[in-house]
Amino acid sequence: GDSVTQTEGLVTLTKGLPVMLNCTYQTTYSPFLFWYVQHLNEAPKLLLKSSTDNKRTEHQGFYATLHKSSSSFHLQKSSVQLSDSALYFCALSHNAGAKLTFGGGTRLTVRP
Amino acid sequence: DAGVTQTPRHEVAEKGQTIILKCEPVSGHNDLFWYRQTKIQGLELLSYFRSKSLMEDGGAFKDRFKAEMLNSSFSTLKIQPTEPKDSAVYLCASSLNNYAEQFFGPGTRLTVL
Protein backbone atom coordinates (compact mmCIF):
# COMPACT_ATOMS: atom_id res chain seq x y z
CA GLY A 1 0.00 0.00 0.00
CA ASP A 2 0.89 3.68 -0.09
CA SER A 3 3.07 5.19 2.62
CA VAL A 4 4.70 8.51 3.51
CA THR A 5 7.67 8.87 5.83
CA GLN A 6 8.72 12.03 7.61
CA THR A 7 11.91 11.23 9.47
CA GLU A 8 11.95 14.21 11.84
CA GLY A 9 9.25 14.45 14.43
CA LEU A 10 10.56 17.65 15.91
CA VAL A 11 12.81 20.36 14.47
CA THR A 12 13.92 23.40 16.45
CA LEU A 13 15.73 26.25 14.74
CA THR A 14 16.77 29.80 15.36
CA LYS A 15 15.05 32.50 13.33
CA GLY A 16 16.81 33.29 10.06
CA LEU A 17 18.32 29.85 9.53
CA PRO A 18 17.44 27.55 6.60
CA VAL A 19 15.30 24.46 7.10
CA MET A 20 14.66 21.24 5.24
CA LEU A 21 11.89 18.87 6.31
CA ASN A 22 12.22 15.42 4.83
CA CYS A 23 9.48 13.52 3.04
CA THR A 24 9.76 10.23 1.18
CA TYR A 25 6.94 8.13 -0.17
CA GLN A 26 6.03 4.77 -1.60
CA THR A 27 3.36 4.09 -4.17
CA THR A 28 2.98 2.02 -7.29
CA TYR A 29 0.90 4.73 -8.97
CA SER A 30 1.76 8.11 -10.44
CA PRO A 31 2.14 10.32 -7.35
CA PHE A 32 0.68 13.66 -6.32
CA LEU A 33 2.53 15.14 -3.34
CA PHE A 34 1.30 17.78 -0.91
CA TRP A 35 2.62 19.71 2.05
CA TYR A 36 0.06 20.87 4.60
CA VAL A 37 0.81 23.24 7.48
CA GLN A 38 -1.14 23.32 10.73
CA HIS A 39 -0.66 26.18 13.16
CA LEU A 40 -1.61 25.72 16.78
CA ASN A 41 -5.36 25.25 17.27
CA GLU A 42 -6.01 25.73 13.57
CA ALA A 43 -7.00 23.42 10.72
CA PRO A 44 -4.37 22.06 8.32
CA LYS A 45 -3.99 24.18 5.19
CA LEU A 46 -2.36 23.39 1.88
CA LEU A 47 1.11 24.86 1.51
CA LEU A 48 2.44 23.22 -1.68
CA LYS A 49 1.52 20.53 -4.13
CA SER A 50 3.19 18.89 -7.13
CA SER A 51 2.91 16.03 -9.53
CA THR A 52 5.63 17.15 -11.95
CA ASP A 53 8.98 15.45 -11.72
CA ASN A 54 12.01 17.66 -11.05
CA LYS A 55 10.05 20.92 -11.05
CA ARG A 56 10.39 23.28 -8.08
CA THR A 57 7.13 24.48 -6.52
CA GLU A 58 7.09 27.58 -4.30
CA HIS A 59 4.64 29.30 -1.97
CA GLN A 60 5.06 31.77 0.88
CA GLY A 61 8.84 31.38 0.83
CA PHE A 62 8.69 27.59 1.07
CA TYR A 63 9.69 25.37 -1.83
CA ALA A 64 9.85 21.72 -2.72
CA THR A 65 10.81 19.61 -5.71
CA LEU A 66 9.28 16.24 -6.49
CA HIS A 67 11.98 13.73 -7.35
CA LYS A 68 10.40 10.52 -8.58
CA SER A 69 13.80 8.84 -8.91
CA SER A 70 14.31 9.06 -5.15
CA SER A 71 10.60 9.17 -4.16
CA SER A 72 11.16 12.40 -2.27
CA PHE A 73 9.41 15.74 -1.79
CA HIS A 74 11.43 17.62 0.83
CA LEU A 75 10.20 21.00 2.06
CA GLN A 76 12.70 23.84 2.31
CA LYS A 77 12.91 27.47 3.28
CA SER A 78 15.99 29.64 3.16
CA SER A 79 15.23 31.71 6.25
CA VAL A 80 12.66 30.64 8.83
CA GLN A 81 10.53 33.11 10.75
CA LEU A 82 8.84 32.86 14.13
CA SER A 83 5.49 32.56 12.34
CA ASP A 84 6.67 29.38 10.63
CA SER A 85 6.37 27.49 13.90
CA ALA A 86 3.75 24.85 13.11
CA LEU A 87 3.09 21.19 12.35
CA TYR A 88 3.95 20.22 8.78
CA PHE A 89 2.44 17.19 7.06
CA CYS A 90 3.58 15.59 3.85
CA ALA A 91 0.79 13.76 2.01
CA LEU A 92 0.46 11.51 -1.01
CA SER A 93 -2.32 10.92 -3.50
CA HIS A 94 -2.19 9.27 -6.89
CA ASN A 95 -4.04 8.84 -10.13
CA ALA A 96 -6.11 5.97 -8.80
CA GLY A 97 -7.96 7.88 -6.09
CA ALA A 98 -8.44 11.10 -4.13
CA LYS A 99 -7.62 9.73 -0.70
CA LEU A 100 -4.58 11.29 0.93
CA THR A 101 -1.98 9.25 2.81
CA PHE A 102 -0.33 11.43 5.44
CA GLY A 103 3.10 11.24 6.97
CA GLY A 104 3.48 11.41 10.72
CA GLY A 105 4.13 15.14 10.70
CA THR A 106 7.09 17.31 11.68
CA ARG A 107 6.71 19.95 14.35
CA LEU A 108 8.85 22.98 13.52
CA THR A 109 9.65 25.37 16.35
CA VAL A 110 11.44 28.60 15.51
CA ARG A 111 13.04 30.44 18.41
CA PRO A 112 14.14 34.09 18.50
CA ASP B 1 -17.33 31.51 0.34
CA ALA B 2 -17.84 29.51 3.48
CA GLY B 3 -15.21 26.93 4.26
CA VAL B 4 -15.79 23.59 5.96
CA THR B 5 -17.78 23.99 9.15
CA GLN B 6 -17.84 21.56 12.04
CA THR B 7 -19.97 21.44 15.15
CA PRO B 8 -19.55 21.25 18.02
CA ARG B 9 -16.04 22.61 18.45
CA HIS B 10 -15.68 20.86 21.78
CA GLU B 11 -17.43 17.82 23.19
CA VAL B 12 -17.07 16.11 26.53
CA ALA B 13 -18.63 12.67 26.90
CA GLU B 14 -18.80 9.99 29.53
CA LYS B 15 -17.53 6.54 28.61
CA GLY B 16 -20.28 4.58 26.90
CA GLN B 17 -22.19 7.57 25.57
CA THR B 18 -23.15 8.13 21.96
CA ILE B 19 -21.92 11.30 20.34
CA ILE B 20 -22.59 12.76 16.91
CA LEU B 21 -20.24 15.15 15.21
CA LYS B 22 -21.42 17.26 12.28
CA CYS B 23 -19.73 18.61 9.17
CA GLU B 24 -20.78 20.86 6.32
CA PRO B 25 -18.37 20.68 3.37
CA VAL B 26 -17.50 23.48 0.98
CA SER B 27 -20.42 23.98 -1.40
CA GLY B 28 -19.89 22.10 -4.65
CA HIS B 29 -17.22 19.73 -3.34
CA ASN B 30 -17.71 16.09 -4.24
CA ASP B 31 -15.34 14.41 -1.80
CA LEU B 32 -15.67 14.43 1.99
CA PHE B 33 -13.26 12.97 4.51
CA TRP B 34 -13.33 12.34 8.25
CA TYR B 35 -9.98 12.15 10.07
CA ARG B 36 -8.92 11.61 13.63
CA GLN B 37 -5.86 13.49 14.87
CA THR B 38 -3.82 12.54 17.91
CA LYS B 39 -0.26 13.38 18.88
CA ILE B 40 0.76 9.74 18.85
CA GLN B 41 -1.02 8.45 15.74
CA GLY B 42 -1.09 11.64 13.72
CA LEU B 43 -3.82 11.95 11.08
CA GLU B 44 -5.88 8.79 10.53
CA LEU B 45 -8.57 8.46 7.89
CA LEU B 46 -11.90 7.35 9.31
CA SER B 47 -14.21 7.64 6.30
CA TYR B 48 -14.20 8.93 2.74
CA PHE B 49 -17.25 9.81 0.63
CA ARG B 50 -17.41 10.60 -3.05
CA SER B 51 -20.65 12.16 -4.27
CA LYS B 52 -22.31 10.91 -1.06
CA SER B 53 -21.21 7.31 -1.63
CA LEU B 54 -19.04 5.74 1.04
CA MET B 55 -15.72 4.84 -0.59
CA GLU B 56 -13.77 3.85 2.49
CA ASP B 57 -14.80 3.32 6.08
CA GLY B 58 -11.41 3.24 7.76
CA GLY B 59 -11.05 -0.46 8.49
CA ALA B 60 -10.10 -0.56 12.14
CA PHE B 61 -12.65 2.11 13.00
CA LYS B 62 -15.64 0.18 11.68
CA ASP B 63 -17.02 -1.24 14.87
CA ARG B 64 -17.92 1.90 16.83
CA PHE B 65 -17.57 4.63 14.22
CA LYS B 66 -20.20 5.32 11.61
CA ALA B 67 -20.10 8.17 9.14
CA GLU B 68 -23.08 9.12 7.02
CA MET B 69 -23.73 11.61 4.28
CA LEU B 70 -27.44 11.98 3.70
CA ASN B 71 -27.05 14.89 1.33
CA SER B 72 -24.20 16.64 -0.43
CA SER B 73 -24.03 19.44 2.11
CA PHE B 74 -24.06 17.57 5.42
CA SER B 75 -22.27 14.67 7.04
CA THR B 76 -22.28 13.14 10.50
CA LEU B 77 -19.85 10.96 12.39
CA LYS B 78 -21.36 8.86 15.15
CA ILE B 79 -19.22 7.23 17.81
CA GLN B 80 -21.12 4.59 19.78
CA PRO B 81 -20.21 3.74 22.48
CA THR B 82 -17.41 6.17 23.26
CA GLU B 83 -14.25 5.07 25.03
CA PRO B 84 -11.51 7.19 26.66
CA LYS B 85 -9.12 6.22 23.86
CA ASP B 86 -11.41 8.09 21.44
CA SER B 87 -10.26 11.38 22.93
CA ALA B 88 -8.83 13.27 19.96
CA VAL B 89 -9.50 16.03 17.47
CA TYR B 90 -11.86 14.97 14.68
CA LEU B 91 -11.34 16.78 11.42
CA CYS B 92 -13.62 16.96 8.43
CA ALA B 93 -12.26 17.90 5.02
CA SER B 94 -13.68 18.28 1.54
CA SER B 95 -12.26 18.57 -1.95
CA LEU B 96 -13.60 19.24 -5.41
CA ASN B 97 -12.30 16.11 -7.06
CA ASN B 98 -9.25 13.91 -7.58
CA TYR B 99 -5.89 15.58 -6.91
CA ALA B 100 -7.56 18.79 -5.68
CA GLU B 101 -6.66 20.47 -2.43
CA GLN B 102 -8.47 19.22 0.64
CA PHE B 103 -10.01 21.99 2.74
CA PHE B 104 -10.15 21.18 6.43
CA GLY B 105 -12.65 22.30 9.00
CA PRO B 106 -11.60 23.64 12.42
CA GLY B 107 -12.16 20.26 14.05
CA THR B 108 -14.06 18.96 17.04
CA ARG B 109 -12.04 18.29 20.16
CA LEU B 110 -13.56 15.25 21.87
CA THR B 111 -12.75 14.32 25.45
CA VAL B 112 -14.10 11.04 26.78
CA LEU B 113 -13.97 10.66 30.53
Structural commentary:
With 112 residues, chain A is mostly beta strands. Chain A has strands spanning 3-5, 10-14, 19-21, 24-26, 31-38, 45-50, 56-59, 62-65, 75-77, 86-94, 97-102, 106-111. Chain A is globular and about 45 Å long. The mean pLDDT of chain A is 94. In chain B, the strands form 2 sheets. In chain B, strands 2, 4, 5, 6, 9, 10 and 11 form a 7-stranded mixed sheet that branches. The A-B interface holds A 32, 34, 42-46, 49, 51, 89, 93, 95, 97-100, 102-105 and B 4, 31, 33, 42-43, 45, 48, 50, 55-56, 91, 95, 97-102, 104-107.
List keywords for this structure.
heterodimer, A: 112 residues, mainly beta, four-stranded antiparallel sheet, B: 113 residues, seven-stranded mixed sheet, globular
Which chains make the largest contact?
A-B, 20 and 22 residues
- Calculate the mean pLDDT score of chain A and round it: 94
- Compute the separation of the termini of chain B in Å: 37 Å
Portion in strands of chain A: over 45%
Brief sketch in words of this structure:
The complex is a heterodimer of chains A (112) and B (113). With 112 residues, chain A is mainly beta.
Set down the secondary structure blueprint.
The complex is a heterodimer of chains A (112) and B (113).
Chain A: E1 3-5, E2 10-14, E3 19-21, E4 24-26, E5 31-38, E6 45-50, E7 56-59, E8 62-65, E9 75-77, E10 86-94, E11 97-102, E12 106-111
Parallel strand pairs in A: 2-12
Antiparallel strand pairs in A: 1-4, 3-9, 5-6, 5-10, 7-8, 8-9, 10-11, 10-12
Chain B: E1 5-7, E2 10-13, E3 19-24, E4 31-38, E5 42-50, E6 53-56, E7 65-71, E8 74-79, E9 88-95, E10 103-104, E11 108-112
